[in-house]
Design goal:
- Pfam families: Beta-Casp, Lactamase_B_6, RMMBL.
- GO terms for molecular function: hydrolase activity; RNA endonuclease activity.
- It comes from Desulfurococcus mucosus (strain ATCC 35584 / DSM 2162 / JCM 9187 / O7/1).
- This protein has 2 domains: 2-193 and 364-422, Ribonuclease Z/Hydroxyacylglutathione hydrolase-like (Metallo-beta-lactamase, Chain A), CATH 3.60.15; 198-359, Rossmann fold (3-Layer(aba) Sandwich), CATH 3.40.50.
- It has helices at residues 61-64, 82-99, 107-115, 198-214, 228-239, 251-260, 268-277, 284-290, 308-316, 335-342, 368-376, 392-406; strands spanning 2-7, 16-21, 24-28, 33-34, 40-41, 53-55, 78-80, 117-119, 125-128, 131-137, 145-150, 156-159, 183-187, 219-222, 245-248, 279-280, 296-299, 323-326, 356-359, 384-388, 411-413, 420-422.
- Strand 2 (16-21) and strand 3 (24-28) form a beta hairpin.
- Helix 11 packs across helix 12 (392-406).
- By secondary structure, the chain is α/β, with parallel strands linked by helices.
- 48% of the residues are buried.
Length: 424
């Protein structure tokens, strides 16, 4: 068996891994990331005719953003959960609004992908041409999956995708299957560090919110539309129901998908109750009304790249009574990163920020200990571990931690994009 790293080698995003075993070729994700000029970077090319099956682990663009390219001239069979492609449709539409000039597909190709997808629920086994495929909950965002693949020759592989071992207000933690996998492809976004306990971070956020409301200020929480927004809204609405919460941007459309696929949630009844009490912003009039109101505004986008969060930032940043709480990953060179580092964003005409600015670690990725704990469940059978989807420092730090836990009998690979690995 060979595994070709078409993207995601010693880098975050652009995930794309081609598993070849005899005549079978399975493509695990096909995503994009962005360069320093914020231009999309594609994974290495693979011909649609050479893909026996495309497996989409979850809806984020760094895992599915290049997949429609395969459906311009081809129709390979794809596999995913239903909410994954429902969310991916919205993210792809937004992606094309910003990048249509440099991307050679449009929504017709995404719909071709959708129409050629076999939708599986967690725990459901799919068998064809001698291979078996099962998904398990990865705990990252709604519908995110750990992939268990047994090829026609009997090789057993697990691909974590993006994985979160910790329970959140919206999702259960990752739920691995007890199966004898020999090869694991594991993400390493936070392979070199551990996250603080979730309850500590949640308590800190509630403290900042209540302090701000007490001084008649407004709290802005820029957040990813998928996952983070719903989690933060559920936390505040459940633990501080006396505080008004407003949500703005694509968050509403994503939340509608969460409500349609409640069986994927940790506590569907709680989620339904929460989203009967929060408020969705419907237009300019609502925005003007709430910027001077003691309340919490959760707005997309999480890195202040665009969307309503930028509007609110411009209106709220000068008042020291207000607070801006960043709860999402801030990529280098992103507006959110500039806010945290410099306290201003000249590109957005946002000068010195007088509002309180905080960043809290609400990551939806497992840290080093969580990743090692997951891998150790397969200690008796795993022979090859391939570390992907992380910067070089994070990936090699995870490698050392795995060696310490599993020993040197396991072959651990830290490939670059473009590398090919022979799995014995």
């Amino acid at each position: 068996m060979k595994i070709k790293v078409l993207g995601g080698g010693r880098e975050v995003g652009r995930a794309a891994y081609l598993v070849e075993d005899g005549s079978q070729r399975f493509l695990l994700d096909y995503g994009v990331n962005f360069d320093e000029r914020d231009m999309p970077r594609l994974p290495q090319h693979v011909r649609p005719v050479d893909v026996s099956g495309l497996i989409v682990s979850h809806a984020h663009l760094d895992h599915v953003g290049a997949a429609p390219y395969l459906y311009i001239t081809g129709r390979p069979k794809a596999f995913s959960t239903k909410p994954t492609l429902e969310v991916a449709r919205l993210l792809t539409m937004d992606f094309l609004k910003l990048n249509a000039a440099v991307i050679e597909y449009d929504m017709r190709e995404f719909e071709n992908l959708y129409d050629n997808t076999v939708f599986l629920d967690y725990g459901e086994t799919y068998e064809e041409d001698g291979f078996k495929l099962v998904f398990a909950n990865a705990g990252h965002i709604i519908g995110s999956s750990i992939t268990y693949l047994e090829t026609g020759s009997g090789r057993r592989l697990m691909y974590t995708g993006d994985i979160n071992d910790r329970e959140t207000w919206t999702l259960p933690g990752a739920e691995t299957l007890e199966t004898g996998v020999e090869t694991v492809i594991v993400e390493s976004t936070y392979g070199g560090r551990n996250h603080p306990p979730r309850h500590v971070v949640e308590k800190r956020l509630l403290e900042i919110v209540e302090e701000t409301i007490d001084r008649k200020g407004t709290v802005l929480i820029p957040a990813f539309s998928v996952g983070r927004s719903q989690e933060i809204a559920a936390l505040i609405a459940s633990e501080a129901p006396y505080i008004e919460v407003y949500l703005d941007g694509m968050i509403k459309d994503i939340t509608d998908i969460y409500l349609r696929y409640r069986k994927y949630l940790r506590d569907p009844a709680l989620f339904n109750k929460v989203f009967e009490t929060v408020n969705f912003v419907t237009g300019t009039r609502d925005r003007k009304k709430i910027i001077n109101k003691p309340c919490v505004i959760i707005a997309s986008a999480g890195m202040l790249k665009g969307g309503p969060s930028v509007y609110y930032l411009k209106k709220l940043h000068q008042n020291p009574r207000n607070s801006i709480i960043m709860v999402s990953y801030q990529a280098p060179n992103s507006n959110g990163h500039k806010l945290l580092e410099a306290g201003e964003i000249p590109e957005l005409e946002v000068g010195r920020v007088n509002a309180r600015v905080e960043w809290l670690d609400f990551s939806s990725h497992a840290g080093q200990k969580g990743l090692v704990d997951i891998l150790s469940r397969y200690k008796s059978t795993v022979r090859d571990i391939i570390i992907v989807h992380g910067g070089e420092e994070e990936a090699f730090s995870l490698r050392e931690a795995i060696l310490e836990e599993l020993g040197s009998d396991v072959r651990i690979h830290v490939p670059n994009t473009g590398d090919e690995i022979d799995v014995a």
